[in-house]
């Protein structure tokens, strides 16, 4: 029997309305931007801090370079980062507004969020971390190296690449996965591992996925699979998350959403910032 998944609003004294529309979808078209920009943890943090919606897109690179959003990086590198971040973050305005106001201080939370946004915007990285690495974990020798990953990359391609480009992509995938905490950072053979996932990062991504078109479900998807959150491990975490209630009875799952959307969750749950100022949110949304 197929598992039934029910998503409904928690009955509050003042019931919240269901979300009116989806805010986007995961990227499904293959691209090679990973060859130029990997996880970019610190650059992502700087982007959340400095991004302003009032800067015209055609002027953004000049402003970012002159204001040194990314330190001493060259204009060419600044342009490359802005292009990539437009796909990872700007394509989802509500999420970017939350990240700009939140700017999470916890490095693990930032690592989790950057990894999931990378998966969201890059299908080959999503398949690599959410499918291939999980298949490797089931093998007696689950370690990976550049040759193993290069063979996998070749299997994903519709046209033949040069060996040099294939190895560059394999190296980029491994380096990005290492930065996300999915494998060891030593050179050569890499052992697989799972990163820590914070409650705030998990709740953020659940509210994000709730209103997103994506393959899978809230209980089974490459995003959570890649960090070891599936089956009973995920259910245990869901039962104690802020802003959400979760119960299971046999094959029936019940999500109780305390807030109407990601923005409402952030305004009420996240502390240490002025989330109650609606006008500030509207400037970014």
UniProtKB/TrEMBL annotation:
Record keywords, A-Z: Plasmid
InterPro entries registered for this protein in UniProt: BrxA_sf (IPR023137)
Origin superkingdom: Bacteria
Name of protein: DUF1819 family protein
Protein source organism: Anabaenopsis circularis NIES-21
